[in-house]
Amino acid sequence: MLRHKKIILGVCGSIAAYKAALLVRLLIKAEAEVQVILTTSASAFITPVTLATLSKKPVLTEFVRSDKSGLWHNHVELGLWADALVIAPASANTVGKMARGLCDNLLTATYLSARCPVFVAPAMDLDMYQHPAVQENFRLLQSYGNHFIEAGHGELASGLVGQGRLAEPEDIMKVLEEHFTPRVLV
Fold first, then answer.
1. What domain of life does the native source organism fall in (predicted)?
2. 11-65 pLDDT per residue, tens
């Protein structure tokens, strides 16, 4: 179902970013082509080397490469290339930017350029997740036609217990597989 699908995985700054490594591994095992875009803050939680090794592609972090080569990563090209854009974990910051059409980084610019289905899997602490502004941003994203992968309930990194845990990579895979499974008309 995901064989030869082109998946952009956007990874945002969250302690749950470590789960992105397993998600990339599962996508590659399913024979998808994976391009990872890492936000600047995500690099504090997981390294580009880890995700590049698993995806077999360089991880994109900026519009323009820092080596002064002038090479830039075209967000429009990326948005047209992808069969799906999966943002996991999606931080409150990135969710807010997406909901309001702000694009100050490669991931949010690619989101605004994407013509493919977008899957948003949030991860954040309980109070952030429940905040009315964040809940409104979730509603806005869904009203734009984005697919929302609900955060799980359990113990959070802060020690609080509640909703905000990133969905497990296997559950994200199930959502993607279901989406790409052809429907049989009866």
1. Bacteria
2. 999 999 999 999 999 999 999 999 999 999 999 999 999 999 999 999 998 876 6
Q: What is the CATH number of the domain that holds 129?
A: 3.40.50.1950
| Sign of the alpha-carbon torsion through 169, 32, 47, 70 | negative
Quick check: is 35 in a domain?
yes
Instruction: Answer whether residue 103 is part of any domain.
Output: yes
What's the domain count of the chain? 1
118 backbone dihedrals φ, ψ, rounded to 5° = -120, 130
- pTM of the predicted structure, to 2 decimals: 0.93
- Whether residue 71 is contained in a domain is answered as yes
Nearest CA to 21 out of 122, 174, 172 is that of 172
Give the burial class of 29: count Cβ atoms within 10 A of its Cβ; 0-12 exposed, 13-18 middle, 19 or more buried: exposed
